[in-house]
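During the second half of the funding period, the structural biology subgroup turned its attention to how the target accommodates small molecules. The most pressing case was 5'-deoxyadenosine, which had performed well in the primary screen but for which no bound structure existed. We therefore specified the complex as follows and requested a full 3D prediction, including the ligand pose.
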Amino acid sequence: MNAHDSEKVVGTLLAQGYSQVQEPADAGLVLYNTCSIRDKAEQKVFNRLQNFKREAGKGKIFGVLGCVAQQEGEKIFERAPHVSLVAGSASYTRLGEMLVQLEAGNRRVTGLSLNTDEAFDTPFTRRDNPHRAYITIIEGCDKSCAYCVVPFTRGPERSRTSESVMAEARGLADKGYTDIQLLGQNVNSYRDPSPAGWDFARLLAEVAKTPGLRRVRYTTSHPRDFVKPIVDAMDEDERLCAHVHLPVQSGSSKVLAAMDRRYTREDYLQRIEWVRAAKREYALTTDIIVGFPGETEKDFQETLDLLDEVRYDSLFSFKYSPRPNTAALKMEDHIPEEEKTRRLTIVQEKQRSIQIQRNAQLIGGVMEVMVEGRNQALGQWIGRTSCNRTLNFSHPEGGESLVGKYLNVRVTRSGPNSLVGETAAVV
Ligand code: 5AD
Ligand code: SF4
């Protein structure tokens, strides 16, 4: 989401006559896009701003964008006086206007209002990848997960019209993009604000029909809004990738209630059952938080049991990180850091062994990959499967670049995080 915000900001700047340089040292204007989802990401921002400070005397203008900008607001001007612009993502619709103010010499420009009912719907996006592209369908979040800063930094939910999403998908396909990822904090709660009134399942089905597109993915989902018609839509069209990322956060219904996730372990497993019972086979991945306030050894064990039960293909796991403004901050029984680290290690070791087993089962099979790049050192091409695995493969030398092509690859080896193979035939 952040990477795509940067693509939109860069596109808007280019459209206004700016040009992009490779190194901050060559720039007249340095915009730093930031994340505050967990403490570590936020710390990086201030360290980086310190480094920028040395450059400040050289007539450069600095801006801080994104969630840390929204969260810290004008305090950033105090902490880093060489910064001239502080703007959160909900204000990017005013980016042009803010740039005019900077050009006019204003050194305290802010965009911090969350009172917008618009998404940042810009026709100008400078995409980093010529084959895979992101499309934002919904911004902000109306949930109130007790640990999460996003509703405070990205504001309330705003869905784009289906017409505008479809036009962007067609435009990308016309330019040769074949792989699209629909983005939002909670794509499942997408609701077309135009009279057509499409829900997420309908939008998925329609985007997938765009001539020229071969793969459509989406991220991220909330189990509460992940309804059966989404699985049905995926089953109808193989262009909708064989991967469901469904963040569970915890395997304990007690912790889920404390997190205000508004589903139980059983509700969650029901959704997993829909996916498992579907016609096609889907990779399942999730997000886990360990050490949420009040998480007992028993609760933690329930998370481990859930991993055994679902046997995810991959997961992202995090130590609970206290965030400003959130409900969890005031909860009792915060878990000591060492204990969070211990639990995180256990989750990651368990998941590693599950992935070793699951990936090994794929040896001998043929999977279609989209080629994403080349690993020169290994003499292999880097491919991605519909189920979102990395499948590195060898291919007879001498041809032109395979990047962006779709190939069938036979899996010959596997590891915990990726597969290795060789081309079977060009699709
Ligand atoms: N602490 C730890 N992990 C968090 N996440 C979000 N907020 C926090 C937090 N305060 C994780 C969740 C979410 C993912 C994007 O980041 O697992 O799904
Ligand atoms: Fe954060 Fe919950 Fe919204 Fe996801 S659904 S962005 S975890 S508040």
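Two results from this model are relevant to the next phase. The pocket of 5'-deoxyadenosine (ligand 1) is lined by residues 37-38, 147-148, 247, 249, 287, 289, 318, 320-321, 323 (CB under 6 Å). The chain has a mean pLDDT of 94.
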